[in-house]
Structures are given as structure tokens and as C-alpha cells.
Amino acid sequence: MPISGRDRGGRGDAGARPAGSRPAGDSRSEAGRLAAGRGRVARGLLHGLLACFLTPCAAVAQVDDAAALAEQGPRLYEEHCALCHGSEGEGRPPAVPALRGNERLGIAARTIRFIRRGAANMPPFPALAAAEVTALARHVRTAWTNDFGGVAIGDVAAVLDERTDAGETASVWDGVFTEAQAARGRDVYTGACGLCHGRRLNGAPDDPDMRSTPPLARARFLREWEGRSLAVLLAFTRLTMPEDNPGSLTDEEYVDVIAYMLSVGRMPAGGELPTDSRRLAHVLIGQRP
């Protein structure tokens, strides 16, 4: 019959104890076991506390990221897209398709590529960072009546190559048009635009009985178009001007008028302003640096 620890302690019979074992009352053994037990408990408590505190923090971070995207998306849309697609995504059919209820938005990768690289009449937006593309794609896929689902920044990274899809940007103050272009643009402007926008390009028409129009040069124009690209300006101008016959000018004529607008704003002349939207998308409008 096995002998209990109580029996062994009561008998004090060392001969019944296996060789090499310590007495049950050895204080060093008891202290070691207690210390080891306390260490295990402490580690367990620490792991539990970390699990309690760190996991909610990660969850909060995810919620904050989602909230940031939800806030940034509408702002980016109003800044870059609403000019043509409308504040409610109604578009300007047939030249500009509606985004509200547009089934083509159902494919996230296609939406991402359209935003960054453009398509048909839509200018590209190479200056947008991956996070901004994410927020904008998420907005157009979930706004209004759309229910195509959100977009994660990983989806954007999987579609775009930032080294080739982004590229360097320039400013309208970097000498992006020639004096010859501005001169040609002045002639076109006088015949097609001046009657409404005025000879000073300030939106005050030459005919006092006509309504005022948006300014096309100087400080007010720069404030209203701050951060947008010349590709967006070309697309919008081609889509809406002249008001009585939109799209009636050639791309070269539209670009020449833009060159004239920049020259009136006292921006320096330099290289030739292209008609290619992909190149114009890298030239941003803004105040003098």
C-alpha cells in the first residue's frame, strides 16, 4: 500500500524514501515550486491583459481607418469627379456615364484602373495616392443607390504598380506652355469664349445684359481649381464649352485656350503643352509656390 506524505512525515523513516530524493520538508524545494507557480500565474495574467488591451486597440484602429475612408471618399469625389459626373452620380449621358447604378462599378479592379489611368472622356488621376484611390473607389461603389462593396488598400496595391501608375507631377508654374500656343489660344478665345467670359477672363461678360460666368484666370480661378490637373480642366472644358455647342473645338484649340488662360494668369512660358490627357494629368493647378 502506498504511503501518503502525511504517513512519511509522521514516521520519519528515511529508508523508505527513494535514493536521491529530497525530504518533503526541504524549504528550498518548496520555495522553488512556489516561485515557479507565481511566475506561471504572472505570465498568464500578463498575456490576458495584453489580449484584453491590444485587441480592442486593433479593432479601434480598423474602425478609425474605415471612418477615415468614409470621410475622405466624398471629399475626393467632389473635388475631382463631381464636375463631370454630378454630385449625385447622375453623369452627363451620353458623353459622361452616370455612376449611380452603373453595373460596371461591380468589378473593383476595373474601377481602380479607371480612376488612376482614365478611360474614354475620363482623365486619369496619377497624382492620387493609393489610399486616396482606395477612398474614392470605395465611395463610388457604395454611394447613392450603389451596393457593390468596399475597397481595401490591398485591392489597390494588387491592381496598380505605383512606380509606373503614379509618376512625377508638375505645376502650372513650371513653364508648361509656349508663347505661340498662348497667342493661338487668344485668337480662339476671342471668337468662342470672350463673349461670355469677358475680355479680362474674370467672368464679367462684355455685354452687361449677360449673366456672369466662372473666372478663367488669376487668383479666383486658381482657388476654385486648386489641386486639379490640366487633364480635368481639358475634359470639363471640352464637355461643356462653348455653352451653345460643347465639344465643337479641336483638342489643339482647347489646349491653346488653356495656354492663353495660364498666360493671362502670369504663369511663365516654357515647353509645349500637349493634348494627351495622360501627360496633362501630371500638371496640377495651384497657387504660386
Which descriptors would you attach to this protein?
mainly alpha, 2 strands, 53% helix, 2 domains, 289 residues, 1% strand, single chain, two-stranded parallel sheet, Cytochrome Bc1 Complex, Chain D, domain 2
Describe the structure.
- The chain is mainly alpha-helical and 289 residues long.
- The protein folds into two domains: 67-165, Orthogonal Bundle (Cytochrome Bc1 Complex, Chain D, domain 2); 170-284, Cytochrome Bc1 Complex, Chain D, domain 2 (Orthogonal Bundle), CATH 1.10.760.
- Helices cover 53% and strands 1% of the residues.
- It is built from 13 helices and two strands; from the N terminus they run αααααααβααααααβ.
- The longest helix is centred in the first third of the chain and has 54 residues, at 27-80.
- It is globular.
- Residues 1-28 and 44-64 have low confidence and may be disordered.
List the helices and strands and how they pair.
Elements: H1 5-11, H2 27-80, H3 82-85, H4 108-117, H5 130-142, H6 153-159, H7 162-165, E1 170-171, H8 179-192, H9 194-197, H10 218-225, H11 230-240, H12 251-264, H13 277-280, E2 283-284
Parallel strand pairs: 1-2
Helix pairs in contact: 2-5, 4-5, 5-6, 8-12, 11-12
Strand order of the largest sheet: 1-2
Helix content: 40-55%
Largest sheet report: 2 strands, parallel
CATH level-four homologous superfamily name of the largest domain: Cytochrome c-like domain
Structural class: mainly alpha
Looking at the structure, the CATH topology of the largest domain is: Cytochrome Bc1 Complex, Chain D, domain 2
Quick description:
The chain is mostly helical and 289 residues long. 53% of the residues lie in helices and 1% in strands.
